[in-house]
Amino acid sequence: SKALELNDIEKIYKRGEPGEVAVLRGAELTLEAGEVVALVAPSGAGKSTLLHIAGLLDTPDAGQVVVGGQDVTGASDRQRTRVRRGDLGFVYQFHHLLPEFTAIENVVLPQLANGVSARDAKARAEKLLDHMGLSGRMTHRPAALSGGEQQRVAIARALANGPKVLLADEPTGNLDPGTSERVFNALMDLVRETGLAALIATHNPELAGKMDRTVTLSDGLLR
Ligand code: ADP
Ligand code: ADP
């Protein structure tokens, strides 16, 4: 089954104005369930725009976005928020963890927002953090964790609500090469185990090589 479909996506900034930028001009992408795809794009090619559209933060000017078989192209803000919370997970280059909360609280909170009971949320958070190799770090606040550990918590948080699709923008881009590889491997293990699909932007060919395939974004097209 298909986890994510981007059909004929068009995005033009400043349409009809002097500084018009056609960033996406018919971009197509299908992620099958369980498929992990590397997104490679030179700076300015529209990677952020594409991830924002796939993540329902932005809407395309034309084309269709389908998440887990559900067409969300014309969906209400409320519906999009529900799909964002339940079916999509996000990891960024910088962790964006809540600094005043512990690692486990950072993984529990999105579940509470999604209607999960405190008890179930805690159990799931412990399991995810354990999978990410953080069983001894659950009650640490982000500032007391290393960069690699912070990203591991961010990955556990992204998977907290059992998404169908993980969207990641340079998830290990701010880590040194060794840490980056270890964190990426932990991410891949968890993704494979959960069977979710992932679109992972990276500039690192070695990491791209560990994924199922690579798509490049250039001239407004994915290929
Ligand atoms: P990337 O993430 O690949 O660097 P972006 O998606 O951020 O690329 O941007 C792609 C192009 O669109 C760039 O030329 C950028 O300047 C332009 N752009 C992005 N957002 C806007 C906006 N809100 N208004 C006008 N131009 C924009
Ligand atoms: P990783 O490879 O996971 O990024 P590091 O090699 O950077 O880990 O860090 C090794 C250990 O040092 C970690 O277990 C981490 O808890 C600890 N550590 C790193 N930075 C800090 C910090 N600012 N405060 C407390 N402990 C830290």
Bound molecules: adenosine-5'-diphosphate
Reported for the largest beta sheet, the result is: 6 strands, mixed
Radius of gyration: 17 Å
Shape: globular
Helix percentage: 25-40%
Task: Please tell me the overall pLDDT.
Answer: 97
Ranges with pLDDT <50 over ≥5 residues? none
Oligomer: single chain
What is the H/E string?
EEEHEEHEHHHEHEHEE
Spatial strand arrangement across the major sheet: 6-7-8-3-9-10
Report strand %. 25-35%
Query: Structural class, please?
Result: alpha/beta
Task: Give the tally of β-strands.
Answer: 10
Beginning-to-end CA distance, first to last residue:
21 Å
Number of helices: 7
GO cellular component, one term: plasma membrane
Domain ABC transporter: 4-223
Protein name: Lipoprotein-releasing system ATP-binding protein LolD
GO molecular function: ATP binding; ATP hydrolysis activity; transmembrane transporter activity
What's the short story on this structure?
One of its GO terms (cellular component) is membrane protein complex. This protein is α/β, with parallel strands linked by helices and 223 residues long.
Structure write-up:
- By secondary structure, the protein is α/β, with parallel strands linked by helices.
- It has seven helices and ten strands.
- It has a six-stranded mixed sheet. A four-stranded antiparallel sheet has the order 2-1-4-5, with helices on one face.
- Strand 1 and strand 2 form a beta hairpin.
- The radius of gyration is 17 Å and the shape is globular.
- It starts with a strand and ends with a strand.
- It binds adenosine-5'-diphosphate (2 copies).
- The site of one adenosine-5'-diphosphate has 7 residues, from helix 5.
